[in-house]
Structure formats: C-alpha cells, structure tokens
Please model this.
Amino acid sequence: MKLLFIVMDGLGDRPIPEFGGQTPLEYAKTPNMDKLASLGMNGLLHVIAPGVTPGSDTAHLALFGVDPHEYYTGRGPFEAAGIGLMIKEGDIAFRTNFATVNSEGVIEDRRAGRIKKGTEHLAKLFEGMTIDGIEILLEAGTEHRAALILRGPGLSDQVSENDPHVEGKEPLVFKPLADTPEAEKTARVLTSFVMKARTILNNAELNREREKEGLLPANFLLIRGPGKVPKLPNFEEEYCLKTACVAGGGLYKGVGRMLGMHIIEDPRLSGGTTTDLSAKFDIAQDALTNYDFVFTHVKGTDNYSHDGKYKEKAEFIEKVDRELYRFLPENHEGDLVVMITGDHSSPCSFKDHSADPVPILIYSPDCRRDKVEKFGESYAVEGSLGQPLGKHIMGIALNEMRMVHKFGA
Ligand code: ZN
Ligand code: ZN
Model:
C-alpha cells in the first residue's frame, strides 16, 4: 500500500459573502476531491494546536509528525537545505537577499531589481572565505534569493538581522540577542562578512555589466531568519517508507531534505500560481511507482490568499482537482491511500494565515467511510476523523497503509 499526501498551502478559508457564504474550497467545483471525501474519512485538522497560527515551516514539520516546539529553530536552515546547501547539524543558517544599496549606503531595492541571472556567479566569489576561523558558505537560490551558512565553533543563532524590511533606509546593525560570547562572536562575524561582501560585490564584473544596462547592481546582502541547524528525525527510518518530495518552493524541499526525503528536482515543479499542475501531478504519479510515500505540495492557494483573491483561489483549487482524476480508485492500479489537506488556513479576508483548522480527507480502499460527501470546511466537521492534531495524521495514514506501529504488547 502506498501513500500520496497532497498539501495545498493555505487551503482553509472563511465564508466569502460573494460566494453565498461558502469558502473558496466549498464554492469550487471539485468532483474528484468530493469523490475521495465521500469514499474516505474526513476531519478538521489543527495543524499545530487549536488557536495556534502556523507558519508554513512549522506546519509542515507538524504534518510530518515532528514537533515544531522541539525541533524548529528558525527558517534559515530549511531555506538553506531547500536551495541545496549541504548543511550540518550546528551550522547557523540564514535566509539572504541580494539587494541594492546606493552610494550613501541606503537600500534602494531589497531584491536587486528582482535579479534573474548571475547570482550563482556572485556567490562563487565567496568560495573558501573564512572569518575568525568561521567558514562562510553562500549559495544562490532563485532570483534574488540566497542562503548563508556560518560553520565553526562558538556560534549562536541569537543574533538580529540586518534587513529593515523596507527600502529607503540603511541596513540594520547586527546585534547579539543573548548576553553570550557566542552571540557576540556571531554578530561580529556577520558584520565583518557584510562589509567584505559589499566590496566584493561592488567589484564584481556582473554588477558593472548590470549598471551599463541600466539595471540595479546586486551589491549588498540582506541577511535574516537565523537558525541553528537541528538534527531532525529521519523520515525513512522513522516510518520505514521510501519517500519522495514533489515541491517547487525552497522551504518545502528544505523540510523534505532535512527529514531525509528524496527531493525530485524538475524546473516544472515551481511557479506558485503559475505552476504547471498537470506536470506536477504527472511527476507525483510517476514517483508512486518507485516510492512508498509521495509528498506533493502546491503553493498557489496560499499566494492567492495573501492577495485576498478568493475567486482565483477557488479557480486554482478547481485546477488542482482536475489533475486528481488519476488517483481515483478506478483509475489507479495498486492500493493507494490518498491524504489531502492544507498546512494551515489562509482566509482571503485576513490576507494572512489564521489558526482556523483545515479540512483533511484520508481515503483508503477499505477505510471506515463516514457520511461526508464533499471536501470543505463546513462538511469536514461532520467527519469521522474529528479534529485531530497535525502530529497525529501520519499515524492515521500509516494505519490505513496497514503499517501498524504498536504501542504496548
Ligand atoms: Zn503554508
Ligand atoms: Zn502564507
């Protein structure tokens, strides 16, 4: 028995007056999800705990049965792992932007004009750099994004960032956030690194070319989201499942990689609201031949939520639904458990995440069906799964896979 786990980011929502009081998921025409809901078990999921609003990072840890209160140290490590940096336990990892500062040292653009090309060449200029015996690793991601790692003894993640999160201001000064030599050393290393980086980037050939073309130079690094790389449980060892991660966003790939999943790399997997969903679910379907457990993440739902675009969110859910025909019992060879949920609610009226629980459906060929016939917030509350916590759902799915993890004799 195999498991397909589909997470639609920010799926849950609140009633939309223009939809006659239905949520985008309820309003959307989703015959395939409805079929799986009617043949399966339904519930409303408190991803971390009732009343707790998850970030996408902590939410995914919880969905994979890893307690974020115990293991989450900040977003940096997951972003770094997602970009592909080989991180080690104890490294201090940061999210980083290539940015533009003017000659007065004021931030002109936090994303260096959304630089498209060449940041990997810029990152190469830092190869082999050490400061105070600390190794510096910089890796470029997509567009302006990058990840930074400090590796060596006596470091701490208790440091402030230099990103003021607005343009027209000077970058902030790194400060230790704890009264420890480690925090002070880390702030010192970062300060010295950013100064060196500015000189290196100012002299970079690529930036001269950009200026000639009238583009903003990527001449500064904004550094944020520090976290000490934690040792996470290995998913494959924990559950004895060969797992694959089908995701486009660096964060999701990073969570998967840190839990020991095989990351499927394919340029068609990323794109948020413009992702080629047909390609994404083709890839997920293929992965099910070689892997026992395939985690598939779609981001568009959350992106539309942050923009308050409820119509587009509903349409995007319909697009996802159209791709799910291949996983219906009549179209799929071999026994398959399908679990579909969100990592949190993102009500379009909030334009942000909320603590509202998210609908979840779990279908398996011989599960105890409940009376729920459609996939949606107000239907799910009637389902047989009740209101489980995120950390419980892997166990529930494993039980459907007949992989019994017995507690007691
Ligand atoms: Zn999310
Ligand atoms: Zn979000």
Observations:
- The longest strand covers residues 92-101.
- Residues 9-10, 56, 59, 302, 343-344 surround zinc ion (ligand 1) (CB under 6 Å).
- The mean pLDDT is 96.
